[in-house]
Amino acid sequence: MNTKLLYLLLGLTLLSWGIAKKNAAVTSDAAVHTSLVNPALPGDNPDPSIIRIGDVYYATSTTNEWAPYFTIYKSTNLKDWTLINHVFPEGFKDMKNQWGENNFWASELAYDAKQKRIYVYYTAHNREVKGNPGLQCGVAWIDADQIESGKFSDNGPVIIEDDCGAIDAFELQENGKIYAFWKNDGNGCGKESWIWMQEINESRTKLLGQKKKVFTNSQPWETALVEGACFFKMGDYIYSLYAVGGCCDARCNYKTGIARTKNLASGVWEKYDKNPVMVSNDRWKCPGHGTVVRTADDRLFMLYHAFNKNYDVFVGREGIIEELKQGADGWPVLHNAIVANRPKAELDFFDDFENKKKLDLVWQWPSKLHRPAMLFDNGLKLSASGGNRDLGTFLGQFIKSVDFDIVAQVEPGNAAAGICLGGAILNSKWPGELGGIGIAASKKGYIVFSNLDGRYTVLKQLNEPLTGISTLKVKISGGGKLMDMFYRNGASGWKKFHTLEFDADKYVPWGMGYRAGIVVKGKPSESGLFKNFELKNN
């Protein structure tokens, strides 16, 4: 072969290899950015917090007016999350002196490597204190090796603001000391809202020394409050990402800012001149109130909440994760361009009660009530009641889209056992008071019911003696605003029983999304038998 030709071919080969290598690097970089799956925590998971212990990540979220209180999720890759526990699985029964009544907000995880313990700071309203001062921050703990199967021990309220109440506690360990941060809930009582800090003892039972102001709303873009502040270290600085504005309903205007200091003791915080660093976009609404975690390879990720704009506010605030990277000016930035890329098939749920011996962790009940009585005997036998404004005993779970089917097989008995979409009683004094609309079966036949307007009403009824197994279905479509009710006897085909337009905006609970679940209305001595339950997203 000609020598010149040989060198030419060799040069072309090297050039093409270089181009391929360069393109491969671009592809690899893109893969890093697209490797995250969002929402990380689908459904109603506001105020998420995240920590890493070794190669394992743990996350928690607000449960608002639902029990069990405060989720505990686990992941090894920041993409796939499993619900493994709750801080208070039995609700207020697990709290010291049963002190919490409602407003179960902003659980924050902290790991003490020396003690090998996980602490959780959380907000609740003290049942002994009226008004805003009743918002207090408690602390509970568990040995890290018991996180999946053990029970947290509650220290009770630790951070108390006698004036306007305390919420959104956070922990930072710095120079051998432990600091607690929180927000005084001034916007709830017509006063200024500040982020505060104070040293706390190692057992997290008592604040030490004097509390100090950190920062408040001071930049032109900041509205009436700052809250949900998290703290992390990068380089020579301690940074704080914080939320501003209204968080929790269709009128929300939440945004995220960032501030930093080189010395906690100085009390001098510099706010970024390019704030806000995260705002609503064409995909997500009102992003904020999250926590930053550092990976083993020294990357930073923030887990925060936002409303999916395609779902309005009906699903609630979902847990979103994205990477923080240092900008040219030295400040860590969020690119604010996350897409919802989690496959809908991963959002489906099926519960075969006949093969279970205990209740799946996803099921919830109203936070002010005791855990409903139940047993597993060829299905889930759920005790009946006339509670929840005559709706009956309810177990639900958060929805994860606005077009879905709720399906369950029931064995008709004396009580009316069925399925429903759970929202909020209109104009209730307690925003979390449960209302529902759905279809139920008993030995007498089928009914479509609702108590969303405060009074239990049968919307449609079919008197037909039932035996054997009945299958019920509620189909939600039209972006959450159209409902079709179906039933099926034995192996027969579906029969459409009732159709109605649903005013989803009217009954969405403040700060929460809707729940899909099962319900049993009847005497306390009666029960409903459920063979299975399915939530299928369309």
UniProtKB/TrEMBL annotation:
The keyword Hydrolase applies. One of its GO terms (molecular function) is hydrolase activity, hydrolyzing O-glycosyl compounds. Keywords: Glycosidase, Hydrolase. It comes from the Bacteria. The active site is at 47 (proton acceptor), 227 (proton donor). InterPro entries: Glyco_hydro_43, Glyco_hydro_beta-prop_sf, Glycosyl_Hydrlase_43. This is Beta-xylosidase. The lineage of its organism: Bacteria, Pseudomonadati, Bacteroidota, Sphingobacteriia, Sphingobacteriales.
